[in-house]
Amino acid sequence: MTSRKKTPETLRSHRWFGVSDLRSFGHRSRLRQLGYDSADWAGRPVIGIVNTWSDINPCHGHLRARAVDVKRGVLQAGGLPIELPAMSLAEPIVKPSAMLYRNFLAMETEELLRSHPIDGVVLMGGCDKTTPGLLMGAISMGLPAIYVPAGPMLRGHWRGETLGSGSDAWKYWDEKRAGRIGEAEWTEIEGGIARSYGTCMVMGTAATMMAIAEALGFTLPGASSIPAVDASHSRMAAASGRRIVDMVWDDLTPARILSPAAFDNAIKVHMAMGGSTNAIIHLVAMARRAGLAIDMARFDAISRAIPVLANVRPSGRWLMEDFYYAGGLRALMGELREELDLSCVGVSGSALGAALDGARVHHPDIIRTLADPVSRAGATAVLTGNLAPRGCVMKPPAADPRLLKHCGPVLAFEDYDEMAAAVDRDDLDVTPDHVLVLKNAGPKGGPGMPEWGMLPIPKKLVRAGVRDMVRVSDGRMSGTSYGACILHVCPESFVGGPLALVRTGDRLEVDADGRRIHLHVGEEELARRRAAWTPPPARFERGWGAMYSAHVGQADEGCDFDFLTGTAPTAEPEIH
Fold first, then answer.
1. DSSP label at 154?
2. Can you count the helices (H) and strands (E) in the chain?
3. Measured distance CA(5)–CA(251) in Å, rounded
4. Helix 205-216, helix 328-335: angle, nearest 10
5. Once rounded to an integer, what is the mean pLDDT over residues 562-569?
6. What confidence tens digit (pLDDT) does each residue in 71-107 have?
7. Could you tell me which residue ranges the Dihydroxy-acid/6-phosphogluconate dehydratase C-terminal domain spans (predicted)?
8. Residues forming beta bridges with residue 485, ordered by sequence position
9. What is the mean pLDDT of residues 327-348?
10. Is residue 247 within 8 Å of 120, Cβ to Cβ?
11. How many other CB atoms are there within 10 angstroms of residue 514's CB atom?
């Protein structure tokens, strides 16, 4: 005990259970009501398990069982596990967008921990918005925290083809729209593309954010790559339960883990994974919670230096299950050793360099070397110009190379409904050279910045064999998506950003290598359009939506709430 930074009397939970007064008597008697005895809590850290399991979240369908594994580990290490359910943001199900509720989960996580007698926390999630939501809340609360990633599902299968969730849905949907497959084949794909619990098994936002959590130091080494239904996943959950108890005694808080170097490591891993563009928004938000500044230029600079090493869809060939068998994230980070700050310490208590010792690549086509990458273009390009003065992003490896430098006429849509009504019309005046532009899909305009950025190719062009076009919006794109999509145009059109002024027939130029996006409309004409523009009506009049709309930041600010960023302390609750 003498080597520990904490003693039983300095545990946060001691304020609830260890004091000799009437209020603590009440707390203890209620624990006894639950069947506990003093041996369960006396001198033991209380470990919160924030679980985002729900019956309608297939990504987290196994987390109820994994919570049992975590509890086993906590008990083995001498802690008292307390499971706390939190909002489950099922990306495929929650509408209008799970992103609308990411900050809700972050607030819920922070306040669950603050209002309960919790000394340390195990965070259980994995679906796109749960990883950043949980981590943002834990960072702001400042208690020792370890993350248990849900892990990817198993590969999909159909008629001898390997299917990747999301990516192959988009692919075969276009084949169906083109008349190349029918209802019978489509139904078979529906039954074979998602075969187990777990997150999307392509390099979507879920896999990206779980890998980033590990790269930041919030998971045990290797935890983010384990398939959801693998027995190793249960063992990892139990090990995380054991580890969090030691973290409490050592007072290993997020502030001791997070640093500019840790975030640089995470961005480098993101780029090497060919990760989702959504990660930029989430990492900015997480850094701001830690009192650190990351701007869009930092992502672009690292993207230029770090090539894509993970040969995983949608930028590559393989799936996350294959990535795990090839050595997983430890192996990929091992290939990046010379680019990483190996002195960063994560939840394991060891420096990153030690955590990577022994990491090996078992399948060199799946995890490439710096000398033989999947793509040298970089996973993410940040473009600026008169259409996006605060930046926009794209994923060059997932686009048709001919479209990385393109100038064409605009076909503009004011909102998603207008776009959806038009794209299947046979008489739509559109060519493969057109640039499709969608407005009002941003943080306030969507609302919640939905994943509408992979605009559908007009049906008449799909039938003609067209599979990619330049598409521009202030929305996001699923990490499972692909194509020449320019996203996160900032400021968004809903608040009067330049995108609001674009009209059908304008010419728009995109240069991915030059990091440039330019609307070929003169400043005088843009000024006339700006003077004529009127703000749209508010999306919400009450409730969470109204609070969200009043306080959410733009994409380059991480879409966090203005009153949640920074490290200003919040007082511990008084106990009377």
1. P
2. 21, 14
3. 6
4. 70
5. 94
6. 999 999 999 999 999 999 999 999 999 999 999 999 9
7. 365-559
8. 471
9. 98
10. yes
11. 14
> What pLDDT is stored for residue 1 in this prediction?
41
The 10s digit of each residue's pLDDT in 300-335 is: 999 999 999 999 999 899 999 999 999 999 999 999
Phi-psi region of 334 (alpha: psi -120 to 50; beta: other; left: phi over 0): alpha
Euclidean distance between CA atoms 45 and 430, whole angstroms: 64
Of all helices (H) and strands (E), which one includes residue 406? strand 405-413
pLDDT one-digit tens code per residue, 417-460: 999 999 999 999 999 999 999 999 999 999 999 999 999 999 99
Dihedral Cα 544, 549, 550, 556, nearest 10 deg: 130
> Among 56, 60, 93, 360, which residue's Cα sits nearest to residue 233?
60
| Residues 550/553/558/563 CA torsion (nearest 10 deg) | -60
Rounded distance, CA 513 to CA 570, Å?
A: 45
Give the CA dihedral 82, 83, 86, 91, nearest 10 degrees: 140
At residue 476, what is the residue type?
R
Helix (H) or strand (E) holding 46: strand 46-51
Residue 71 sits at φ, ψ, to 5 deg, of: -60, -40
How many CB atoms sit inside 10 A of residue 38's CB?
Answer: 11
Buried b (16+ CB within 10 A) or exposed e, 329-367: bbbbbbbbeebbeeebbbbbeeebeebbeebebeeeebb
Token pair in block for residue 243: 């580890």
Q: Which two tokens stand for residue 126?
A: 């994995």
> Is the Cα torsion angle 331, 350, 128, 284 positive or negative in sign?
negative
Which residue, among 361, 366, 303, 60, has the nearest Cα to 199 in the 3D structure? 60
Query: What average pLDDT does the chain have?
Result: 96
Closest CA to 258 of 130, 119, 134, 142: 142
Residue that is written with structure tokens 């989960």 in the block: 105
DSSP lists the bridge partners of residue 128 as none
CA dihedral for 460, 464, 466, 470, sign (positive or negative): negative
Q: Please calculate the CA angle 279-282-284 and round it to the nearest 5 degrees.
A: 105
pLDDT at residue 289, rounded to an integer: 98
306: phi then psi, degrees, rounded to nearest 5:
-110, 115
User: Tokens representing 572?
Assistant: 């511990």
Radius of gyration of the CA atoms of the chain, in A: 24
Q: Which amino acid is at 40?
A: D
What is the secondary structure of 197-250 as a DSSP string?
Answer: SSB-SSSSHHHHHHHHHHHHT-S-TTGGGS-TTSHHHHHHHHHHHHHHHHHHHH
Q: Give dist(CA 205, CA 381) in Å, integer.
A: 17
Question: Can you tell me the mean pLDDT for 400-409?
Answer: 97
Tokens of residue 336, six digits: 């990046």
